[in-house]
Amino acid sequence: MTEEKSSFKSGFVAIVGRTNVGKSTLLNKLAGRKVAIVSEKPQTTRNKILCVLNREDSQVIFLDTPGIHKPKYRLGEQMVQQALGTLKEVDAVLFLVEANLPPGPGDNYIMRQFQDLATPVLLVINKIDLVRREELLPLIEQYSRMYNFSEIVPVSALTGENLSRLLDAVTGYLPEGPKYFPEDMVTDRPETFIITELIREKVLHLTSEEVPHSVAVVIEEMENRPNGVVAVRSIIYTEKESQKAILIGKGGQLLKKIGQAAREEIERLLGAKVFLELWVKVKPGWRNKEAQIRNLGYRDEE
Ligand SMILES: Nc1nc2c(ncn2[C@@H]2O[C@H](COP(=O)(O)OP(=O)(O)OP(=O)(O)O)[C@@H](O)[C@H]2O)c(=O)[nH]1
């Protein structure tokens, strides 16, 4: 994890909205040429990282949560529950609607998922270039009667109007945190990268200075099991036997703690149950960079 000044903010933001509201257009415009990561792989039961937006003082990771949208076919209860779990755990939710249409059944369906949700929901009224100003106010009033939105931001994803205001608003809901992704990274496996970083972060938090910051984490295997569990096998490389012993701890206690803490966060990221297997190996001179390169080149059997 890159060291940042304490005021750096980062977090996860779920984007929801029915088809055609302009989700892709918005993301492309927000990311501009700075898009670091776009995952093309369709993932039906897992949260998909849509893009990672880097600003000077923040990093926003936008997630898609497929189970929230009005189902074209009957979604499994498990998938809906997972999606709702995601909404609970992200730092903010962006709910996209269209300025040129009144709230419809698709919008209502999504808003019903927000009931009892503590996460701030920002209403983004898109396509304001299609309506006159005086039409906007009644629409804003209509939506605010339907749900207690934390903020309402009218934008045009097409022209870019008000998008910087939207980003400022979103950043306001992010906690202080690390830069999860390097700015120049381009990969279609962002999850793999972030999982190694989460494990590494737990190692650093739960060990003393005797274990240097140069531990490397590699994902050996990642598999989506038919029961919806994502199985991850990961190796933590240390430089010396003594460091390995520290990491494992008495009776394996520390490694267990690291695994538990990392697993909870990986589950939050993927929106799925995770089975995490951690191994510690000694490899003198193993540099972190090599681990990253290896992870970026990671492939699964498909
Ligand atoms: N006038 C106008 N058109 C927009 C705006 N944003 C998106 N559109 C148009 O709306 C249509 C749908 O936009 P998309 O970005 O594909 O919508 P989406 O929500 O990603 O759609 P799905 O992928 O089907 O969920 C496209 O024709 C866009 O050009 C906007 O701010 N103003």
UniProtKB/TrEMBL annotation:
Looking at the record, the residues that make up the KH type-2 domain are: 199-284
Q: Which residues bind GTP?
A: 17-24, 64-68, 126-129
Compartments (UniProt record): Cytoplasm; Cell membrane
Q: Where is this region: G1?
A: 17-24
Question: What GO terms fall under cellular component here?
Answer: cytosol; plasma membrane
- What membrane topology was assigned to this protein in its record? Peripheral membrane protein
GO BP, one annotated term = ribosomal small subunit assembly
**What CDD domains does the database record attribute to this sequence?**
Era, KH-II_Era
| Location of the region described as G2 in the Swiss-Prot/TrEMBL record | 43-47
- Domain of life according to the entry: Bacteria
Q: Where is this region: G4?
A: 126-129
Which UniProt key words apply to this protein? Cell membrane, Cytoplasm, GTP-binding, Membrane, Nucleotide-binding, Ribosome biogenesis, RNA-binding, rRNA-binding
Q: Does the keyword Lipoprotein apply?
A: no
The UniProt entry, under InterPro entries, shows: AAA+_ATPase, G_ERA_dom, GTP-bd, GTPase_Era-like, KH_dom-like_a/b, KH_dom_type_2, KH_sf_prok-type, P-loop_NTPase
What molecular functions are annotated in GO for this chain?
Answer: GTP binding; GTPase activity; ribosomal small subunit binding; small ribosomal subunit rRNA binding
Gene3D superfamilies in the cross-refs: 3.30.300.20, P-loop containing nucleotide triphosphate hydrolases
Q: Which residues does UniProt call coiled coil?
A: none
Question: What range(s) does the Era-type G domain occupy?
Answer: 9-176
Q: Which SUPFAM superfamilies match?
A: P-loop containing nucleoside triphosphate hydrolases, Prokaryotic type KH domain (KH-domain type II)
For region G3, the annotated ranges are 64-67
Function of the molecule:
An essential GTPase that binds both GDP and GTP, with rapid nucleotide exchange. Plays a role in 16S rRNA processing and 30S ribosomal subunit biogenesis and possibly also in cell cycle regulation and energy metabolism.
SUBUNIT field: Monomer.
The family assignment reads: Belongs to the TRAFAC class TrmE-Era-EngA-EngB-Septin-like GTPase superfamily. Era GTPase family.
Q: What is this protein called?
A: GTPase Era
